[in-house]
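Suppose you are handed a protein chain with no further information: no name, no annotation, nothing but its sequence. What can you learn? This example shows the usual starting point.
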Amino acid sequence: MTGQSRAILFILLGMLCISVNDMGIKLLSGDYPLHQMVFVRSGIGLAICLVLLRAEGGVALLHTDRPLLHGLRAGLIVTANMLFFAALSVMPLGVATALFFVAPLFITLLAIPVLGEPVGRYRMGAIVVGFVGVGVMMAPGVDWGEIGRASLLLPVLAAACYAGMQVLTRKLGARSAASAMAIYIQSAFLLVSLGFFVVAGDGRFADGVEHPAAVFLLRAWVWPAAGDWWLFGLLGVMSGAIGYCLSMAYKHGTASVVASYEYVALPLAIFWGWAIFGEVPRPVVWLGIALIAGAGLYVFARERAQDRALASARPIRRG
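A reasonable first move is to predict its three-dimensional structure. Written in structure tokens, the prediction is:
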């Protein structure tokens, strides 16, 4: 198997794991706080990544001469994840996933002032089309009911955080083993979730809060029901697999080629939304999804045609 074929296999596996992870979090979001789920999934994921680290070369791979960069990267990934997971608690899987896919457009825009990368009129036009897709889904005439139009900003803000992290990484040129990168991220998730537990684990800040996403973030920790333990375990396995698969994909393949396969996550999210939650996107949502996905794929196609690995051709999803 060639390096590019191996990369495509890893990115497809990574997208499948991401979709299963998101589905599991949405299933549990009505009963457990987000920071409890993050703590359990990251603890299991960290154990898996430590095993992979040993297979790749051992503890020595964890050494880095840029700890602050890795800390900042991990912090931005954690923020992006927390915002996206909060979005999953209040909106359909397909909607949240589609809105998150504006990240490549944010990355391309940030690459202009931060990296000095040229962006021609065609790709700039694609960026405009993509954000029009966001506008279509958030238009005043679209009734989102109890979700609230403002909640649609959660995955968009998550995408912006992720874009900032990717541009920073490209600028500073951070590199590390796939398992080591995954361990940095899982460790950050553990620290943040423990911080949430210390500050808000008893649920005192959830009193009087009405918005479902805020309740999801602030409700008290509870002992999982017997029938839910397998879901927590599944989240942990997916967490470890996601970071490793994405790192391996971009290690072995051309970024602009691999990144285009990440859009497999969109139909997977729509499938899980329909199969598990009975969510069927409305016509306006389909239009927004088409505009956002079309714009992102066009950006990747332009980069591949020009044989350039620009900042937007980076991993677009979460650890």
